[in-house]
Design goal:
TATA-Binding Protein; 3 helices; globular; Rbstp2229-like_sf; DUF1885 family protein
């Protein structure tokens, strides 16, 4: 059974709409800052922090992409997509990022997916709905 986590963009978020390309750019930024940490420590931290390649299939139509593990014994796949849902009490649509684990995803994938979700939610100041159903709020409260 696959698991899903969501980063919802709320009115207090940095952005109200996000594209797949922007999410990819944020993950590339994450990879670059972890590589810099590795350089400072004189350790290959970037491979441990981001052990994936960013891949996209033709049938995705720009709606989703996946992270493919470099070492298949430790990491397999994480799917990432964007979408919008209609709010129950109003006619407005709220946008979200969906992070999914497949049936063959490993525990390492789940740990990294949680890490990536927290990074994305903190950068966007969103509302993070974790795989276990808990919610973390990264946006400023009034």
């Amino acid at each position: 059974m696959s698991l899903n986590a969501y980063i919802k963009l709320v009115p207090a978020s940095e952005k109200q709409v996000i594209s797949v390309e922007e999410v990819k750019d944020m993950l590339i930024y994450y990879r670059s800052i972890t590589a810099k940490t590795g350089e400072q420590l004189s350790w290959g931290y970037s491979e441990a922090a981001f052990p994936y390649t960013i891949e996209e299939k033709e049938e995705a139509d720009g709606d989703w992409f996946y992270l493919k593990g470099i070492d298949p014994r430790k990491n397999k796949y994480i799917l990432i997509g964007v979408g919008a849902e209609k709010e129950a009490e109003s006619e407005e649509k709220s946008n979200y990022i969906q992070v999914s684990l497949t049936d063959i995803s490993t525990h390492g994938d789940k740990g990294k997916a949680n890490e990536f979700c927290k990074f994305l939610a903190s950068k966007l100041k969103g509302e993070l709905h974790l795989f276990n159903g808990r919610v973390m709020y990264y946006y400023p409260k009034k």
